[in-house]
Amino acid sequence: MPEANSNGQRNPRILVAGANAELRNGLQSVLRDHPTHPEVSEAADSDSTLAIAQEQHPDVILVDVGLGPVDGFETVRNLIASVPGTSVLLLANRLEHEDFRRALQVGARDMLQVPVTREDLFASIDAALAVSLGKRTALEGFGTAETEPQRAMGLAVFSTKGGTGKTFIATNVAAGLAQAGKRVALLDFDLQFGDAAIALGLVPERTIYDLVQTYTELDEQLVKEFMLPHASGLQLLPAPLFPDQAEEITAGDIERVLEAVGGAFDYVVIDSPPLFEERILIALEWADTVIHIGSMDLPSIKNMKVSFGAMDAIGHPRDKIRLVMNRADSRVGLEIADCEKHLGMTVQHSIPSSIEVPRALNSGEVVLLSRPGSRVARELAGIISVFEQVEANGKRRGLNRLRRS
């Protein structure tokens, strides 16, 4: 009978697979000292590894690349395909860059060089156990829940014209929701020129480019490792550091990122580029609400009208759009009523001009938090309150809402 821990749950199962008996024995000895007191078993070849894994459904499998008759890489691929909910770590005597990339491509959670320190081994085991728990919780939920699982409320901040304040509004809305105690992800999908990190005073080392170029299978724990925490509590997935890297990010990558984060947060805020293209159309389709930003000038009004027509043509409902006019008190010969007449839509929110906005952007501050009593902050708080009310009323969509044809 499987041993149970103090919480009444079964202890983790770990399978060690390697042709070298000394390696297997050494790993088993160390793993038995892991704080979770795992049940450890072993396999000496690829065939028995697959058979034992299918029978025991271990939480974590350690696979030596020297396994045979099928090598460790292909064994990992077979394990991922046939044992859902498990996490696999690869072991190698030497770590080459191409081997590491190949390991991730076949689905390994990590690759470790042996001999490996107890600290590094336990850290990788802990991360793998967390991922396995998440996978299995999700798998157990399918087919047993009476209603579709809850997922994050998606807010896409969009405009067809640059300089309208998309990033300013996206960062402030995300930070305001996070400050209110919500779990918030901010995804910078302005893949060529995104600067949400700068606006938040953050310095990224890894970005969405590194995430999707390195990993073919994404889960929420993995994506979080590439996110930057902000003082407000939000988690930012930064845009690529160099414009040419944007070309390497596909529509499928965007879809996989959205699917991975959808169940891990209360809100996902998307900062998008000022153009229509397939990757952004996926994000707009995924979102519950498109916060469409405009400004008080004729080029912006014209672009907004064209944008609404394009969204109508591809089936985006108008009631999904919240229209926000930035710098709405600018004295340029246009009034809000004029804009509404030209657009055939009501402006739900008006953000006034303020010197605090460029100051905050230049210093990496969030106006909503640093100047909460300002007019700008009060208007931003009004936007946030709308989404909090929608959440309170339970008007969210389910997990599987990408409807690509």
Task: Give a summary of the structure in a few sentences.
Helix 2 runs parallel beside helix 3 and helix 10 (about 250-260) packs parallel to helix 11 (about 280-285). Strand 4, helix 4 (about 95-105) and strand 5 (about 110-115) form a beta-alpha-beta unit.
CATH topology of the largest domain: Rossmann fold
List SSEs in N-to-C order: EHEHEHEHEHEHEHHHEEHEHEHEHEHHH
- The helix count comes to 16
Distance between the termini: 49 Å
The radius of gyration over CA amounts to 25 Å
Structural account:
This protein is α/β, with parallel strands linked by helices and 405 residues long. It has two domains: 13-141, 3-Layer(aba) Sandwich (Rossmann fold), CATH 3.40.50.2300; 153-392, Rossmann fold (3-Layer(aba) Sandwich). It contains 16 helices and 13 strands. The chain has helices spanning 21-31, 46-56, 72-82, 97-105, 118-141, 166-179, 196-199, 208-214, 220-225, 251-261, 278-286, 298-313, 336-343, 356-363, 367-370, 375-392, and strands at 13-17, 39-43, 60-64, 87-92, 110-113, 153-158, 184-188, 228-229, 235-237, 267-271, 289-295, 321-326, 349-351. The strands form two sheets. An eight-stranded mixed sheet has the order 8-9-7-10-6-11-12-13, sandwiched between helices. The protein has a five-stranded parallel sheet with strand order 2-1-3-4-5, sandwiched between helices. The longest helix has 24 residues, at 118-141. The two termini are 49 Å apart. The model is unreliable at 4-8, 142-147 and 397-405 (pLDDT under 50).
